[in-house]
Batch of 2 targets.
Target 1
Amino acid sequence: MPGPRGAEHLEDESFPLVSETRHDGTVAVSAAVPPDEGLTAERLAAKYGLSVSGARPSLVEYVRQLWGRRHFILAFSQAKLTAQYSQAKLGQLWQVATPLLNAAVYFFIFGLLLGADRGIPSDVYVPFLVTGVFVFTFTQSSVLAGVRAISGNLGLVRALHFPRASLPVSFALQQLQQLLFSMLVLVVVVMAFGSFPALSWLLVVPALLLQFVFNTGLALIFARMGAKTPDLAQLMPFVLRTWMYASGVMFSIPAMLADKDVPTWLADVLQWNPAAVYMDLVRFAMIDGYGSSYLPPHVWAVALGWALLAGAAGFVYFWKAEERYGRG
Amino acid sequence: MADETKSARIPTVIADDLHIVYRVNGAKSGKGSATAALSRILKRGDDRGVRTVHAVRGVSFVAYRGEAIGLIGSNGSGKSTLLRAIAGLLPAERGKVYTDGQPSLLGVNAALMNDLTGERNIILGGPAMGMSREEIKSRYQEIVAFSGINEKGDFIALPMRTYSSGMAARLRFSIAAAKDHDELMIDEALATGDRKFQKRSEARIRELRKEAGTVFLVSHNNKSIRDTCDRVLWLERGELRMDGPTEEVLKEYEKFTGK
């Protein structure tokens, strides 16, 4: 095959070459329409009301577009959830079996081997631990899915037009649906250890909704960071594991720190960190022996604050780079 | 075409000195070892392992309502990249693309999941292209019938990974072609499926063309360009080499490729 220089003789012929015409100021030869002649591309676009392709919409418009794609967001999250176990023989049973096995492993290690149940009555410890694992996993997997939401779906981003925030939101929604399966397991575990359905169980709904908003915000933030630096996908599991061990998933923070010489601000920071707050709220709602004495003060306000902060900051931060996703 | 009534020509797509650059992480040195990666990080400046590919270099053109424009050029000349940039899917490094409304790429491949049934994929693919639930519902039977998936049994209820490659391609095309578009871009979508399906899809594309304002078609098949397009852009190495009526450009292109 001849190289691209093989057709240079073209310039001697009468065929209009665009590389020539561009220097003359016209846009393209076949476009040399008298009334529009001499107009720059920008003026021509303005004259016919064309807009820049792929430009970032305003924040309000962006919210509107995202709402318009709600069916896609839901369908995508459900599809991802179903596709996850479609090759397994037990199929969708794994939705429930996975959290159950997870809880069993943590109970074996922390409850039986290490005895981390200090300061908690033993009949409260198992539901305490299982709730902690499930609620933390909700945040953890939302962040991990968020990191890959754009960088792992470049094909989709480069092929179809939709507000890119659909992807991290959809992944957070997938984790919410996953959590609902876990909650089935949790109800059984909690009842097996002597806490029965009560009105206080309804508090789980606002607690998890706030956590979902918080998770979505984090997923949006990490989606933008992960789109720029895909290496985060390798790093985040370590960060998240550190966070898990510091948040009192398998031990009670006040009980663990009680006989240690640590400054009170450290205990406050640990207790007010969002993961600990959401875990404590769900435990408080569902476990009879886990009363308000275990909760930090103003816990609902803190839960709401974290949700609003992460949700709003994450959304704006993600939207700011909307036109740049899909490169690299 | 150039000698039609000029005063009535309304531009729908304007590309103004468009440059598209891809950045590829960790591809600078051919060696994939960890030590090579480390030495890349330690190096200062722009050299740090990011390789750039300048896929489209300064392309300008104006497309008008009612035109069907073919994009030709050898592999890797930037045709698909240009198409994605017009659709606003790839950010421009320099220059701008102005469009009337939202151009869309014909294709939903990326949104579909092999582990899901054909039925679930239709329900997923429609909203991915921006169709509403009602639209999907009303067109569902049409999509299944068009794809012909069920001609050999109830395949629509099986996961897509069990389909033959031809069947999967047919379903993908059927979902993609279910939507009407203002400005339509087709990337070699004509060459899917068996002869019978190709005829059906060509007919559907002609239909879509009638409804769409402007059509862009990327193809290596000069015959389908001749059948469909009245204007051709010839790209080579990311530069616009020629822009004109189909026959003139194709004649030069065929000379160039040694046909």
Target 2
Amino acid sequence: MNATFNIRRQGLTIYKELQEKYSIILTSTCIILMIYLAIWALNLIDGEPVSTVARAVTAATILSIIGCLAPFFLYKNENRRMEGVFYAVSPSSTLEKCISMLVICSVIFPLLSTVLLMSLDSLLTLMPFEASYSGSIWGCMFSSKVYMDTIMGFMPFSFNADAMHIDLVNKMYDTVNPLSIPPIVGIAMTQSAFVLLNMLFRRHKIGYTLLTFLGIWVIGAVISVISAICFFDSLQSNPDIAPERMLQCMITLSRALSLIYCILPIVFWALTYFRIRRLQY
Amino acid sequence: MEKNEPTVRIENLRFSYRKHLVFENLSMSLEAGRIYGLLGENGVGKTTLLRIISGLLRPKSGDCSVLGIRSSSRNPEMLKDLYFIPEIFIAPPIPVRRFAQSNSLLYPGYDNAMFERLCRTFEVDASSRFDRLSQGQQKKALISFALALNTRVLLMDEPSNGLDIPSKTTLRRVISECATEDRVIVISTHQVRDLENLIDPIVILDREGMILNASVEDISKKLLFTTAPTLSPEAYWSESGLNGYYQVLPNRDEADSRVNLEALFNAALKNKETFKTLFSK
């Protein structure tokens, strides 16, 4: 039998882990549903109608947060010296253990919670209350276009510039919008980073992970500010910069970001694999 | 694995925890059909050795192979024939029966009827939640599960710790019943009296490595355990009592005597180099 991967062993590993973790999965899903019900109840008290997009954003935010935290409660003990012994001596390969983690954290749990949450939302639309929900969120739940259009609709400023500039902004939006990263890819990337950090830290996992993210965010913010300053400096020193060149820069940046967002989850999962393989108990 | 190859082979093993050296050039082999008793003072590396054999720790240099496979690779082909019972473990928050059901999926030799029988023998309620059992009950449940797996290598770290006196008797009985020709059982203990009459051969470790790895028959051929009114100048170790001196002497006349593990252990620690030479022949 192949020591690295065997389909039967893979199936048994997933089944074994599901048997051990199904109560945690169900409890977490119940918590998600309870949070959504609580928000619905607050909206009812408030009496204001809630738009479909606002509900979709709320649902997606809850699912993203719980989805990213899932590795911490589903696989919190697997890398610990005492608690992780049974996991380590379990006769499946590192690849099979890693795939099983991927299937449970990134497929089964998110799929189950998303379907149940959307079904709950559909049920709530049937409730005969005055300020109740209406319309389905199924179509706009993870649509980047809906989010972008909404953000543009909420823009707190109006363009007083001439027609050429408005045209440029519209052109930039129309070109860059289709290139924007789908929210699901962003969630997958964040979750894979959380999975890696969950396996990396043995104690105070959530605290250390948040600190790591904070550190990365600070570095990212500093780089962004410096880049923006450099960009505006170059604009001031060269006011005749062609709008097409700016547009091209935006497209290149969007493409690079999309590529990074697609590559990073693969890199994080690969690093998780090597982490599990190198773990000592 | 070749036909005459020992089940566990350790060659020139070196292991350290950062600056604390545990093993230097340790070589030994463990053969099937035996119940090895691993003895040693606190901190000599009994648990570490069991963890290295089970692949939980990686040696710094040298080699440790189980059934012809390098243990640190945690190859599923090796792991399906090996089980490790740690001295201290965190029981999962699921019923014992479900733990056995899910964890046995990847072990082809698992015998559920045997598990149920052993639970009854140890008076463990398999329907109870594992983490809600007392320490002793948890250990008995895990021992029942480990024995029912029928793996060819079974490593037990201080299995009698936390067990009451009747359970220790039951433990000795079930282990001897479960010992088969193709199975090697390694029991690490510092409570030698608990497992007397069960373990054979005896392995004694010290801070410089291994003092002896010999069968009880070999030990009784080379050493005489006797009580005499006067203390012999040749005695490796002695203890005064009401009937005179209980002594461990060189067995020059090949006289029969019952090996006393505690006396052997004390004598070995007091005469490390002599014993190493005596049992290396």
